[in-house]
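>> received
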Amino acid sequence: MDKLAQLRSQLASLRAGETPEVEIYTVIHGFGNERFTEAKPYIEQQLGHPDPQIRYIALNVLAIHWMCTEHRQTCEHFALTDLDSDNRRLGISGLGALLEGTRDPKVLQLLLHVFNDEQEEPHVRDRAYSSILYVLGKPAKAQPSATRRLNYAEDVNWEWIGEASDIAKTAPR
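>> returned
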């Protein structure tokens, strides 16, 4: 069986409910890696799945693997409302990826809100900072390491946060 036929067979099994629950994540991830966009409607349905890992891989494929700009609002929704902090972080990452270099006032406003929210999980706030830099168009080499928590005194460029704040103030209300 060739690769395309195999992917179509996996999609048919998913649609028929024949795929074991523990394999759904892996299958969706494979669709993302193979750019098997025939599965897009099915993957979009999984954005509301009760399992946070299935929601995660669905958004990861749509926003990160495939860069589906029509899922900007989905990323915003995940960033602000998903109960799982990894999914909120992914929503924020998706915004940074989809809006890289746009300097979009509305998304900067959202990212700054998360970045400044001391009640939010540190890894989510750290990702908000990285996404702010991406949306501002700062080079990747200006990004702090994602392998450790940010030290806000040493790792954050507060001039860039100020720049983002100034742009965010121009967002329509």
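>> The longest helix spans residues 122-136.
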